[in-house]
TrEMBL record:
This is Alkaline phosphatase family protein. Residues 138-226 form the PhoD-like phosphatase metallophosphatase domain. It comes from Actinomadura montaniterrae. Coiled coil: none annotated. SUPFAM superfamilies: Metallo-dependent phosphatases (SSF56300). Residues 1-91 form the DUF7800 domain. Pfam families: DUF7800 (PF25077), PhoD (PF09423). InterPro entries: DUF7800, Metallo-depent_PP-like, PhoD-like_MPP, PhoD-like_sf.
Length: 542
C-alpha cells in the first residue's frame, strides 16, 4: 500500500482555493476529498531523485468556509491516519472582510531535547489549537521566516542517517551534502512531532529561507561565494539545498495561477511521466538560480482584503560581484519597489533578516561594510571581511545602499506619495534569536512604521551571546559605533527608530492581528511543550 512519507501540508489558501502538498513513498494518484462540501480534487505525483511529490489544487470553495478533508492515494485513505485522535485536518478559507491573523516565527531546531533547545513554540501552538477547537483564535496564515531546517548544525538523528550513507570524515563533515540528506532533514523537522505535523495539515503555511536552510552566512559576500565554490562538495550541497527548497517550501508559496504558469513545474511533471525522474532538471535549475540570481524569483506577494503581505528573499537574490553588492539584485529590487504601494490598510514586508536592527548593531554592520569595501585601505578591508564572516555582519545594515533604497520606498508609501497611506507598514523578521518591536520615529509619516521580530521558535541563544545582544539593545550604547561608521564615511541612516518592546530571548511565536485600520501584535512563549504564555503585546495602530 502506498503511504505518505510527509504531509499533508496545507499551503496557499485564498477565499475560494486551497493547496495541499504531500510526499509519498511511490508514484501514485493523490486525491483530496471533502464529500460534504463537494470536494474531490486530484493530481499525479512527480519524481525527483527517487522521491515522489504531489501538489493538489482545490477550487470552488466558499469564502470563510470550514472544510474537513481527507487524503487518499490510489483510492486508499491515508490521512487521517488510522486510530488518530487528532481533530480533523481542515481547510479554512479566508474571509476578505474579516479579521486577519498572521502567526510567524523563525529558527526552529528539531528534533532535540527541552534541556538543549527549550520547549518548541510551534508544538505548543499546535496543542493550543487542538484543544481550543473553533473557540481558539485561529491564525489565517502561519509564516515561517527562515531556518526551517539546519543543514549545517545537525541533530544526532540526522548524523546517524548520514553515517548510513557515507564515511564520517567525508566532507562536508557533520553537514548535509546533497538532495537526499535534505529530504531527511525535512522529515525530521516536519514529521517528528505529531502535533506539528497536524498543525501543518490544517493551517495555511508560507515560508522563506534563511542561511541555515543552506549554510551559515549563506551569500554573506562575494569572497564567501568564491570560497564555497572552490570546495569540491559545494555543487551537490547548493543544488540539493535549493532544489529541495523549491519542492518542500517554495511550491506552496505560489498561488494556483503562478504554479499553472511555472515552466519548471511543467518540465518536472513532463519528465516524470511514464516513470521518469526530474532530478537532473532540478539540479540544473538550482545551479542556475545560485549562479544567476536574476533567473529565479523566490520573493512573492499576496493580498488579503485590505492587507498586502510581501515576502522578500534576502538570501539567494543578492547582488554579489567583485564590483557591486546589494541585498537584492536590480530586477528583484524593481519588483519590491512595485509592491510597495499605498491604497491598502496595512503593508507587511517579511524578510528573514531584520530590516531594522538595534541601532548599535546597525551602525557596527554599516561600518564593517565600508571597511571591508576598502574605506580604510586594503589591509583593513581583508580584516573587515574576516570580521564580517566571524560575527555574522550581513543584515540589511551591511548593505547600506539597499537599506537606503528600501527606506525611500517605505517613506514614500508612508507619506501617501504612492496612493493613500496605509495605517501601518510593518517589517516581519526573525534570524537574531530574540524578539522585539522597534518603531520608526523620523521622518514623520501618516503610517505607523515598525519592525516586528520573532525568533527563535526553538533555538535560544547561549548566555554570553545573549548578554552581548542585551547590551547592544540598551539606549546610549550606539553612539560609539555611529562615530566609527561616520569615520568610515557612512552617511546617517534615512530613518530613526528605537526599540520599544523587548528584547525577549525566549522561544516564541508572534501573531499579528489586522482588523480594519487596526493592527496589534502579541508574542507568546511555551511554558511547557503543550502550553503558551504571553511575553508581550503591543498596539501598532490605535
Amino acid at each position: 500500500m502506498t503511504a505518505l512519507a510527509l504531509g499533508p501540508h496545507l499551503r496557499h489558501v485564498s477565499a475560494r482555493t486551497a493547496t495541499i502538498w504531500v510526499e509519498t513513498d511511490r508514484p501514485c494518484e493523490v486525491r483530496v476529498v471533502a464529500r460534504e462540501h463537494g470536494v474531490d480534487a486530484g493530481a499525479r505525483t512527480f519524481t525527483a531523485h527517487g522521491h515522489h511529490y504531489a501538489v493538489v489544487e482545490v477550487d470552488g470553495l466558499e469564502p470563510g468556509a470550514r472544510v474537513p478533508y481527507e487524503v487518499a492515494v490510489d483510492g486508499e485513505t491515508v490521512w487521517p491516519e488510522p486510530g488518530s485522535d487528532d481533530p480533523p485536518s481542515m481547510i479554512r478559507t479566508l474571509d476578505p472582510d474579516g479579521t486577519l491573523r498572521i502567526s510567524f516565527g523563525s529558527c526552529r531546531r528539531s528534533p532535540g531535547t527541552p534541556e538543549r533547545f527549550g520547549h518548541d513554540a510551534l508544538a505548543a501552538f499546535a496543542h493550543r489549537l487542538m484543544a481550543g477547537g473553533d473557540d481558539a483564535a485561529w491564525p489565517d496564515v502561519l509564516l515561517m521566516v527562515g531556518d526551517q531546517v539546519y543543514a549545517d548544525e545537525l541533530s544526532d538523528e540526522m548524523k546517524e542517517f548520514i553515517r548510513g550513507r557515507r564515511a564520517a570524515d567525508e566532507p562536508p563533515v557533520d553537514e548535509a551534502a546533497d538532495f537526499e540528506d535534505y529530504t531527511h532533514l525535512y522529515k525530521l523537522a516536519w514529521r517528528d512531532d505529531p502535533a506539528v505535523r497536524w498543525l501543518l495539515s490544517t493551517v495555511p503555511t508560507f515560508t522563506i529561507f534563511d542561511d541555515h536552510d543552506i549554510r551559515d552566512d549563506w551569500n554573506t559576500s562575494y569572497a564567501w561565494r568564491q570560497e564555497m565554490w572552490a570546495q569540491p562538495w559545494w555543487r551537490a550541497r547548493i543544488t540539493g539545498g535549493i532544489g529541495s527548497y523549491w519542492i518542500y517550501q517554495h511550491l506552496g508559496n505560489m498561488s494556483p495561477q503562478d504554479r499553472a504558469s511555472d515552466p519548471l513545474l511543467a518540465a518536472v511533471r513532463a519528465a516524470s511521466e511514464n516513470g521518469g525522474d526530474a532530478g537532473k532538471i532540478l539540479d540544473e535549475f538550482a545551479e542556475r538560480a545560485d549562479k544567476q540570481p536574476d533567473t529565479m524569483r523566490w520573493s512573492y506577494a499576496h493580498d488579503w482584503g485590505g492587507t498586502r503581505l510581501v515576502v522578500v528573499d534576502s538570501r539567494c537574490s543578492r547582488l554579489l560581484t567583485a564590483d557591486r553588492r546589494g541585498m537584492l539584485d536590480d530586477d528583484e529590487f524593481r519588483w519590491l519597489d512595485g509592491q510597495c504601494q499605498g491604497g491598502m490598510d496595512h503593508l507587511l514586508i517579511a524578510s528573514s533578516l531584520p530590516y531594522l536592527l538595534p541601532r548599535t548593531i546597525h551602525h557596527a554592520e554599516s561600518w564593517n561594510e565600508a571597511v571591508a569595501g576598502g574605506a580604510w585601505g586594503r589591509r583593513a578591508a581583508a580584516a573587515g571581511e574576516k570580521v564580517r564572516q566571524a560575527a555574522d555582519l550581513e543584515h540589511w545594515a551591511a548593505f547600506e545602499r539597499s537599506f537606503r533604497e528600501v527606506a525611500e520606498d517605505v517613506i514614500a508609501v508612508g507619506k501617501g506619495e504612492r496612493g493613500p497611506a496605509p495605517a501601518s507598514i510593518s517589517f516581519l523578521s526573525g534570524d537574531i534569536h530574540y524578539s522585539c518591536l522597534s518603531r520608526v520615529t523620523a521622518p514623520d509619516t501618516a503610517s505607523a512604521i515598525t519592525q516586528i521580530i520573532c525568533s527563535p521558535l526553538r533555538n535560544p541563544l547561549n548566555g554570553t551571546i545573549r548578554r552581548a545582544n542585551r547590551i547592544a539593545s540598551m539606549r546610549g550604547v550606539s553612539g560609539a559605533f555611529r562615530a566609527l561608521a561616520k569615520l568610515a564615511k557612512v552617511p546617517a541612516p534615512p530613518l530613526r527608530w528605537r526599540m520599544t518592546d523587548g528584547p525577549w530571548f525566549d522561544n516564541a511565536i508572534a501573531t499579528v492581528e489586522l482588523a480594519g485600520r487596526r493592527c496589534t501584535v502579541q508574542w507568546e512563549t511555551p511554558r511547557t511543550e503543550t502550553a503558551l504564555t504571553e511575553l508581550g503585546r503591543a498596539a501598532i495602530t490605535r
